[in-house]
Amino acid sequence: MIINAIVKASIIAGFLLSTCQSFAADLDKRQSELKAIQQQIASEQQDLRSNSQQRDKLLQLLKRDEQAIASAAKQLNQTENNLDSAKSRIKELTKQQDSLVSQQQAQQQVLAKQLKSAFLAGNHDYSKMLLNQQDPATVERLLTYYGYLNKARISAIESLKKTRSELQQVQQQAQVETERLNSLAIDQRSQSQQLAAEQQQRQNTVAQLQKVIDQKALGLEQLQIEEASLKRVIEQAMKAMSESPSMEGLAKSSSRLDWPTKGSIRHAYGSARSGNVRWKGVVIDAREGQAINAPAAGKVIYADWLKGFGLLMVIDHGQGFMSLYGYSQALLKEVGDSVNAGEEIALVGRSGGQTQSGLYFEIRHKGEAENPAKYCQ
């Protein structure tokens, strides 16, 4: 058992080392690219804040940073779910073990009493007692009584053997689950470190990007680019929408849906964003890594990174209704996946170059944005 544990630990260590080396190589490459862009900006004499080429390079680097964060966050989320599952399983097995131990002790006490009775009864010569009995009915009662005692003793022994076997199995399962828990804890530490490294790389990229686009005119241009990008996604999503009669849309659920995550509204639907650009959804303040849940059943028709919106998911709810979720740290569903109302679909983040964590949430009907407050309570 010890040798198996050592081999298992060696395999886990080798896998983690290989994974960490791969992550580190990719991270080093992106850090080098960011440094090269910073040096290029520093060497230029002209005002590069309006240089779209530099902005596009940084946006591409930001996309890769945030996709790396999403991958690390998704792995960490899965590991933490597995940890919770392992802890629950160990708790359940411990409860079973305690119950079986109590049962075993009770059975041992019953068997001990039966053996004691048999021992005391064994001091008499039953052959003589039976031969000396004049009443056949008395003889029959004695035979029945001792037969009953013998069967009860055999039954108690079998029950005790079964309980001990079950207890041994539960103890073995608990040991396996404990080893899995220890392995998951190692994974969790490694993934947490990787996530922190990726987030630091993203922060550096966002800081440099902010220097490039920190100009009102360019900022408005960037918003217009983002709006155009989202418009193309909406058009693609509408083509992918299903007319399945099983999806009832959102109209029948008016004012009865839960918001996809808990938090206060930072930007309300229809409020001014910049110039003539207005918010077509809402931004909900929420901590990074918090769960995003589907407010209604549907099917994922888009799940990718988009300029300005970061990791974006679009869900088709039928009858021309769709919901959008942007700024995510990680997307937990893929295109084609069906989701149920209340099911976890993503994690709150600040992708798309956001400086604050939160969720960008839209509801659209036949391509037109509608106030989410009309449907969510």
TrEMBL record:
Record domain M23ase beta-sheet core: where:
279-372
Going by the UniProt record, its keywords in alphabetical order are:
Coiled coil, Signal
- Report the CDD domains cross-referenced here: M23_peptidase (cd12797)
Q: Which Pfam families match?
A: Peptidase_M23
Q: Give the InterPro entries listed for this entry.
A: Cell_wall_metabolism_enzyme, Dup_hybrid_motif, M23ase_b-sheet_dom
Entry annotated with the keyword Signal? yes
Signal peptide residues are: 1-24
Residue spans making up a coiled coil are 27-103, 157-240
Among PANTHER family, the record links this protein to: MUREIN HYDROLASE ACTIVATOR ENVC, PEPTIDASE-RELATED
What name does the UniProt record give this protein?
A: Peptidoglycan DD-metalloendopeptidase family protein
Origin organism is Shewanella avicenniae
